[in-house]
Amino acid sequence: MTTSHYLMLLATASLAIGIGCSAQREAQPQIDVEQEISYCRDKIMQSLSELADSDGVIDYSQAPRNICGTDTRWACRPACAEEWCGGFWPGILWYAYQATGDNEIAYQADKYTRALQVITEQPVLDHDLGFLFFCSYGNGYRLTGNPDYKRQLLAAADSLATLFNPAVGTLLAWPRHVADYGGHNTIMDTMINLELLFWAAKNGGDYRLYDMAVAHADTTMRYQFRPDYTSYHVAVYDPVTGKFLRCCTHQGYSDDSMWARGQAWAIYGYTMVYRETHEQRFLDFAEHVTDAYLERLPDDMVPYWDFNDPAIPNAPRDASAACVVASALLELKDYVDAPESDRYRDAAVEMLKSLCSDRYKAGSQNSAFLLHSTGHHPAGSEIDASIVYADYYFLEALERMERDQHHSTNLAKK
Ligand code: GLY
What is the pLDDT of residue 168? Predict the structure, then answer.
């Protein structure tokens, strides 16, 4: 999509919603958010019954991960065995509990969450502790205040911090790939894991966790983006001197391409880092990486898995990236003034409208919320599939939108 096409689309969206104050716009959503959340809830109840055996017993050590091809039910993986996605399903359950107050869902969320505890009792495998613990224990603690969850979060943050290399100024993503990459490897996905460090520093953990998170965000900002603010997936550094060596890809089309979910992690990550630090440079950067993404989107606002795949328009989409970005924009819009705030909100609405259409919703095809995500294209894995993290960020985005609608309704009542 060209920039002018994109701006035209947003102008059309603004007209359809009703130009005026933000409260007016938010009072007239183009998505029936409550109906979409109810769709997610029904899907969750269906999945929970499918995950139970004939005696009604669920094996909580197995976490839903994907639904590929013509399968209709979640394929599960052991939540604790070298699996980065084990926190998303409990996170979905916590968001569903937040939306419904249903204690049965909270019970299931707690069971799936606690199944991850063993991870903090083992030596750290890689940087994914943030994804694993913040989506599960983090949401659980936010909603219940359970002190057990807090203990686990602090332990996970300490474990994650052992990957920080002060010479480089970032967390090592994959200890197991140091030899393959020829050094300390840092990946864009890790931006999300910084949230656990920020949280721990504010909640009784070591204050140095905050400094590590800020150093990671600054170093990544310096080395892992091109001048046009598109991201590289991987940066490699000398682990002893800290010298930057090179950038390359792991899950993208090529070293020089913009992998869609990588850019989505950058958008979400820098928005969150601004929230935690209030440092203007991070907000400016979040806007730059967002604009680089928005300017390149196809018409339906759901990216192809990599923006530079020469097979476009016949390349697979990545709905998960659209979910991550839609959710991030519903936060970023609160940190900027009009017209940018309206532009980011309208873009998020367009993304969610697309995701809520028959093209992307799984409906009766399978038990997930959404279709058409891409996990690891170069490895031939999870291509054009339903993937659990797409559903997690989809529900998060819907709940952020619902919160905004309630907020504007309350304002209107005053
Ligand atoms: N490695 C995380 C992702 O696939 O986005």
Answer: 98
